[in-house]
Write a structure and sequence with these properties.
Layout: E1 5-7, E2 10-12, E3 16-18, H1 27-35, E4 40-42, E5 59-61, E6 66-68, H2 77-90, E7 96-100, H3 105-118, E8 122-126, H4 144-155, E9 162-165, H5 173-182, E10 187-190, E11 194-198, E12 200-201, E13 206-207, E14 213-217, H6 222-235, E15 240-242, H7 249-258, E16 262-265, H8 268-272, H9 276-290, H10 302-309
Parallel strand pairs: 3-4, 3-16, 4-7, 7-8, 8-9, 9-10, 10-15, 15-16
Antiparallel strand pairs: 1-2, 5-6, 6-14, 11-14, 12-13
Helix pairs in contact: 1-2, 2-3, 4-5, 5-6, 6-7, 7-9
The structure holds flavin mononucleotide.
Length: 310
């Protein structure tokens, strides 16, 4: 089976891309993942300047979910650029998606200008962080005017296609998706973690995370993620990178049927191990050959078509 798929004019060898924040901070790690079957690499969120994360413990994983409050630590754009450059030099055919983050719109714009010079295949904008210029510090992804304005400003400084990564923690994700697409977003990435959630150690009665609360991901959020991606695909006509609780090849097919063109592999690395990309892709190919599917793009949005024909 030819597993390649087009996303915004970029050819991906397969639809499975590394989710932001998992594993990769160095070119050699990303290259290794590419050799082990990743169809695309998303970097962790990059800040303009060095950013401190939260104190330990920052993460708890069990068979149902993962909760984290890493606080998105990062060494800043200068250090990151060296690794991006090194990865892109290798030209291994596995596209690089640079994920950017900021507390102020000016910071996002400054990072996008720097990233533009390197020409990665895509830029993903993480809008789940609090807007420090907003009176209540509301995340950009929860405000249509702020999300749209930020999209417009980033688009003005780069010719690389951008996807906006949305938070599920909003009343109406369709409104936000429409606002950023009208402002020029080329694609949508969904979803970021749910929450905040909380886990208590009953022996000490204390929260397990030092930060007390954290974002929830992993298998428990999959049906919620599928619904968000389905809703976004119903509302806008741009390609989607769908993620949230993906663990098996069947989950990937389901996410694509909901409307995703590419599928984010994050927690699956914990549940299925280092070879998760190869394992999931084999499971997808097996399902496709049993169901007469010749190319993955045949299944993108299939559920929308089926519901229309009922
Ligand atoms: C430890 C951890 C760190 C993460 N860091 C980032 C990040 O830096 N930027 C971002 O956009 N999303 C980040 N995410 C969110 C994931 O990219 C993904 O959207 C979410 O976890 C859902 O996918 P999953 O259920 O497969 O993990 C992080 C998630 C986890 C668990």
């Amino acid at each position: 089976m030819n597993t390649s798929i087009d996303f915004l004019g970029v050819s991906f060898p397969n639809p499975l891309v590394l989710c932001s924040g998992y594993l990769g901070v160095t070119a050699s790690t990303w290259d290794n993942l590419a050799k082990r079957g990743a169809g695309g690499i998303t970097t962790k969120s990059i800040w303009l300047n060095e950013h401190q994360g939260h104190p330990n413990p920052v993460i708890l994983a069990n068979e149902d979910f993962i909760i984290n409050a890493v606080g998105v630590p990062d060494a800043g754009i200068k250090k990151a650029v060296e690794e991006f450059h090194e990865y892109l030099k290798r030209a291994n055919g596995v596209p690089l998606i640079v994920n950017i983050i900021g507390g102020k719109k000016d910071d996002f714009v400054a990072i996008a200008e720097e990233i533009n010079k390197l020409h990665p295949q895509l830029i993903e904008v993480n809008m789940s962080c609090p807007n420090v210029e907003d009176e209540h510090g509301k995340p950009f992804a929860t405000s249509c005017p702020d999300a749209a304005d930020l999209t417009r400003r980033i688009k003005a400084v780069t010719d690389i296609p951008i996807t906006i990564k949305l938070s599920p923690n909003v009343e109406n994700i369709q409104e936000i998706a429409k606002a950023v697409v009208e402002a020029g977003a080329d694609g949508i990435t969904a979803i970021n973690t749910y929450g905040p959630g909380m886990v208590i150690d009953i022996d000490s009665a204390q929260p397990i995370l030092a930060n007390k609360f954290g974002g929830v991901s992993g298998p428990g959020i999959k049906p919620l993620a599928i619904k968000k991606v389905f809703d976004i695909a119903s509302a806008v006509d741009v390609p989607i990178i769908g993620m949230g609780g993906i663990k098996t090849g069947r989950d990937c097919i389901e996410m694509m049927m909901a409307g995703a063109t590419l599928v984010g592999v994050g927690s699956a690395l914990y549940y299925r191990g280092d070879d998760a990309f190869k394992i999931l892709l084999d499971e997808m190919v097996e399902w496709c050959s049993a169901n007469g599917v010749k190319r993955f793009d045949e299944i993108v949005g299939r559920t929308h078509k089926v519901l229309k024909d009922l």
